[in-house]
């Protein structure tokens, strides 16, 4: 896309003047973006996949240090002789009055008995002024929005249009951010201290520059609430009145999802949701269970029909991993049973009315273990909770099972 506005012309000219990635930055990326491996054969011969060095060590170690290059290594048990890994590396800098976030694709190719072969190329630049207005330059891509590394390396960095689909492409969460950062004074003024909390740097900066309510949450130390609103990009308008009351009473919210559910139920039961006595409980879990017990929610035939019309394309969708099975809740009766057995508010808080959410039940050997809320717009897990909103011993396996089967959910989106 050709630059048309004065802002775009300044950014394109500035992009040409940025320094290429330095050797120090390359070394940092190669060292920290990847896990470094070694292999061991049956005779005790060890092979460093980083420098290619070979030595003998018959001890059955899972981790060791290469005697040649000094790299800390992890045992790779597969029999593959080659492997390819790709990760993003980020450099945060400034150019005149602009904040610049540079994303590099780092390619690592391993072969047993040979030194690792690394390659780095700049894939995306995000430019931002002090008002939070952004422009994106990137390489060309293949015809897909689902593969994060489909860059055409022979192309050049050019201005690209952004929309709701391409935000997922350009809002990159890098594996590693170079620790020596430069930021514009406005970000320092708005409270930025160097941590990104696993959030995309461009989204993080844009939020701090454009939304004074999020800036207030960040400066007040309400990080759980800040990250929740930042990740889901909705809800702050609805809850801001109640959040301000918490801020005035120095009440820190440690579990944003649970607290927001609690506020919804206070409103549903016509309790005084603006009263700090209710809004700022000493134990939010006990308060949540107390107000949930007051919910005498009944669903109508219309609610059932609306749910079937909205989510029937996902019915009969299930996936398993050994004794763990995850399936979509197919009726409001399922929601009621799920909430009653696991003692949470998936039914009483009408999760079946959430248009963007797909609610699934995870069972282990037939026993309900956790309930999963999955976002259909972002294709990611919003929350996954077990009995009384606690995490079960199977939590990580359930999350991985859902994430591994996102393509199956996506297929149902087009049915």
Largest sheet: 6 strands, mixed
Pick out the low-confidence regions.
none
Structural class: alpha+beta
What is the arithmetic mean of pLDDT?
89
Overall, the morphology is globular
Assembly state (oligomeric): single chain
Strand order of the largest sheet: 10-9-8-7-6-11
Question: Number of helical runs?
Answer: 15
Termini, distance in Å? 34 Å
- What is the beta-strand fraction? 15-25%
Radius of gyration: 25 Å
Helix content class: 25-40%
Count of individual beta strands: 16
Total discrete domains: 3
Give the helices and strands, then pairings.
Layout: H1 6-17, H2 23-32, E1 37-40, E2 45-48, E3 54-56, E4 63-65, E5 72-75, E6 82-95, E7 98-111, E8 114-128, E9 134-138, E10 158-160, H3 167-170, E11 176-177, H4 185-189, H5 201-210, H6 212-219, H7 223-232, H8 236-248, H9 256-268, H10 276-279, H11 284-294, H12 301-311, E12 318-321, E13 324-328, H13 332-342, E14 357-364, E15 367-375, E16 380-385, H14 395-404, H15 406-413
Parallel strand pairs: 1-5, 6-11
Antiparallel strand pairs: 1-2, 2-3, 4-5, 6-7, 7-8, 8-9, 9-10, 12-13, 13-14, 14-15, 15-16
Helix pairs in contact: 5-6, 9-11
How is this structure best described in words?
This is PcfJ-like protein. This protein folds into three domains: 6-177, no CATH class; 213-294, no CATH class; 301-413, Gcn5-related N-acetyltransferase (GNAT) (Aminopeptidase), CATH 3.40.630. The chain is globular, with a radius of gyration of 25 Å. The strands form three sheets. The chain has a six-stranded mixed beta sheet. A five-stranded mixed beta sheet has the order 3-2-1-5-4, with no helix packed on it. Strands 12-13-14-15-16 form a five-stranded antiparallel beta sheet, sandwiched between helices. The mean pLDDT is 89. It has 415 residues and is an alpha+beta fold. It contains 15 helices and 16 strands. The relative contact order is 0.07. A hairpin with a 2-residue loop joins strand 12 (318-321) and strand 13.
């Amino acid at each position: 896309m050709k630059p048309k506005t004065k802002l775009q012309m300044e950014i394109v000219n500035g992009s040409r003047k940025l320094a290429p990635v330095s050797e120090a930055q390359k070394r940092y990326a190669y060292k920290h973006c990847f896990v470094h491996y070694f292999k061991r054969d049956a005779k005790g011969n060890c092979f460093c996949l980083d420098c290619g060095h070979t030595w003998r060590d018959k001890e059955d170690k899972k981790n060791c240090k290469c005697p040649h290059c000094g790299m800390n290594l992890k045992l790779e048990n597969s029999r593959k002789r080659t492997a390819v890994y790709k990760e993003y590396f980020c450099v945060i800098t400034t150019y005149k009055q602009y904040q610049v976030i540079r994303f590099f694709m780092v390619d690592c190719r391993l072969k047993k008995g040979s030194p690792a072969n690394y390659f780095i190329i700049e894939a995306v630049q995000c430019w931002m002024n002090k008002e939070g207005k952004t422009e994106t330059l990137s390489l060309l891509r293949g015809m897909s929005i689902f593969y994060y590394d489909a860059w055409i390396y022979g192309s050049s960095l050019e201005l690209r249009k952004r929309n709701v689909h391409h935000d997922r492409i350009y809002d990159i969460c890098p594996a590693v951010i170079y620790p020596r950062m430069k930021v514009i004074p406005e970000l320092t003024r708005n409270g930025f201290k160097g941590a990104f909390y696993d959030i995309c740097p461009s989204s993080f900066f844009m939020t701090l520059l454009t939304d004074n309510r999020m800036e207030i949450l960040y400066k007040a130390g309400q990080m759980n609430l800040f990250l929740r609103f930042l990740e889901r990009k909705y809800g702050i308008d609805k809850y801001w009145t109640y959040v301000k009351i918490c801020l005035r009473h120095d009440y820190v919210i440690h579990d944003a999802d649970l607290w927001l559910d609690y506020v919804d139920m206070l409103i549903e039961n016509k309790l005084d949701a603006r009263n700090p006595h209710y809004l700022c409980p000493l134990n939010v879990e006990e308060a949540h269970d107390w107000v949930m017990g007051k919910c005498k929610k009944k669903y109508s035939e219309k609610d059932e029909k609306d749910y079937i019309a909205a989510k029937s394309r996902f019915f009969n969708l299930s996936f398993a991993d050994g004794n763990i099975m995850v399936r979509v809740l197919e009726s409001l009766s399922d929601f009621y049973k799920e909430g009653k057995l696991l003692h949470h508010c998936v039914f009483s808080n009408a999760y079946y009315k959430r248009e963007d959410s797909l609610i699934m039940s995870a069972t282990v050997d037939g026993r309900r273990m956790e309930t999963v809320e999955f976002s259909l717009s972002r294709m990611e897990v919003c929350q996954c909770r077990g009995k009384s909103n606690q995490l079960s011993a199977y939590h990580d396996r359930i999350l991985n099972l859902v994430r591994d089967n996102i393509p199956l959910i996506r297929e149902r989106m087009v049915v």
